[in-house]
Amino acid sequence: DSGVTQTPKHLITATGQRVTLRCSPRSGDLSVYWYQQSLDQGLQFLIQYYNGEERAKGNILERFSAQQFPDLHSELNLSSLELGDSALYFCASSEPRGGEAFFGQGTRLTVV
Amino acid sequence: AQSVAQPEDQVNVAEGNPLTVKCTYSVSGNPYLFWYVQYPNRGLQFLLKYITGDNLVKGSYGFEAEFNKSQTSFHLKKPSALVSDSALYFCAVRDGNTDKLIFGTGTRLQVFP
Questions:
Q1: Do B105 and A98 touch (CB under 8 A)?
Q2: In 3D, which of B5, B25, B105, B46 has the Cα closest to residue A42?
C-alpha cells in the first residue's frame, strides 16, 4: 500500500458528461501529481500542485482542471468528456523536495 | 528539457537468466533517476532511485540499477529473473525545477518459465 488513495476505482460515463476524480496523498506529502495513462501514449503528466498552489502544467486539456484543497487532497475535474478521454488516471504524491513519488491505484475512466 | 528514453518496447528472458532493461537520460544538471514497475491493473510501484553516491543502486525485489554518467544511462538489472517479474517497467527523471517525474515510454518484461 503506497498510502495514496484514489476514488473511485472505476468510472463509466457518457460522452459530454463531467466527472471528478479524487486523490488523498500520503500523510505529510505536500506535492500532488496527476498522470494519464492510455494504451497508446504511455504516462502523460497532466498537472502538479504543491501545498495548494499549481506548480507545473503538462499536456492538460482545457476541458480538464484540478485543484488541491487546504487538507492537501486533490481533485481532477474532467468535463465535456470524449471517447478519447478513456484512460487510467493516476495520482501521486511526494515529500517536499523529496525523492520518489508514490502512486495511487488509479481511476479507470471509460467514456461510452 | 529533461527526458528519458527506453529503447526497447519489450524484453524477453528465460527464468533464472539475468535481465537488463535499458534507460538513457538527458538532463541539465545532476540527474535524479528512478525505476518503477507496474503490474496489470495496478498503480506504479517504486523500485529504486539514484540521487547521488554509488553508481550501483540496490532496490526492491532483488533489482539493481547501474548509473553511468559517461553513457548517460541508468539500466535496470537483476541477476536471476523470476516469472513473477513479468510486468511493465518505467524509467523516470525528476525535473529539477518542479519535482515532477518525467517518464519513459515503458518496457514490457516477459519472463518465460
A1: no
A2: B105
